[in-house]
Amino acid sequence: MELVTAEFVKSIDRTETTKSFVFKPEKILDFIAGQFLQVIFDGDNLKNRELNKFLSFSTAPCNENFEITKRISNSDFSKKLLGLKSGDKVLFKAPMGNCVFDINEKKIAFIVGGIGITPVMSILDHIFTNNISSADIAMLYSNRSTDDIAFKNNLDNWNKQNGNFKLTYCVDQEPINDKTILLGFINDDKIIKTIPDYKKRIVFIYGPPAMVSSIKQCCLEIECEQSKIKAENFSGY
């Protein structure tokens, strides 16, 4: 883990309320797919939780640029991100986190809520960019509505192009006519229905704390091995 300065390159709209921010570091960052970093806008007070926040990488490692993604709010931190201009320098502390991809894990399940998709994008980008065909992936991705599904184009393309990637969306605040999208919160029934071999998989759970806690409990109730459950909470986003 070290302090690194990076130059802002551009922002990318992912949904009406979610944006990705692309940076070019002074040197290529060495991180593992699934890790996160700290964005530091107040270098004089590293304990300033309003301006120095933790965000996941949302692209694969070893690229010239890296990307972070955030659901935009009215916070001072969001305003700082939105105010960045091309060429602006930002300080980061990276990398951090142990809820990461291991190439030795062949069968993987991702159960994801909202902005918890960001580390999953890093992992999937790494797997598909490097043609890691040994990875067998099933994924449940939950959002309030279809409009809130970040990275939907990327995910749909990977789903079409890779037979070892099975993707299911869940939404909870609108009627759905699309039979490929499930209505309602993720629960044990949805896990069993969409990932029938869940007991054979490493289960990654990413999302808001309440969602992560609920899904962990679901997984234990349907007899997932506790040692095969990896989880990371996303709060303060």
Layout: helices, strands, pairs:
Elements: E1 2-13, E2 18-25, E3 36-40, E4 52-56, E5 66-71, H1 76-82, E6 89-96, E7 107-113, H2 117-129, E8 136-143, H3 152-161, E9 165-171, E10 181-183, H4 188-194, E11 202-207, H5 209-221, E12 229-233
Parallel strand pairs: 7-8, 7-11, 8-9, 9-10, 11-12
Antiparallel strand pairs: 1-2, 1-6, 2-5, 3-4, 3-6
Kindly describe this structure.
This protein has 237 residues and is α/β, with parallel strands linked by helices. The protein folds into two domains: 2-96, Translation factors (Elongation Factor Tu (Ef-tu), domain 3), CATH 2.40.30; 107-233, 3-Layer(aba) Sandwich (Rossmann fold), CATH 3.40.50. Helices cover 21% and strands 34% of the residues. The chain contains five helices and twelve strands. It has helices at residues 76-82, 117-129, 152-161, 188-194, 209-221, and strands spanning 2-13, 18-25, 36-40, 52-56, 66-71, 89-96, 107-113, 136-143, 165-171, 181-183, 202-207, 229-233. The strands form two sheets. Strands 4-3-6-1-2-5 form a six-stranded antiparallel β-sheet. A six-stranded parallel β-sheet has the order 10-9-8-7-11-12, sandwiched between helices. Helix 5 (209-221) links the parallel strand 11 (202-207) and strand 12 (229-233). The longest helix has 13 residues, at 117-129. It is globular. The two termini are 22 Å apart. The mean pLDDT is 93.
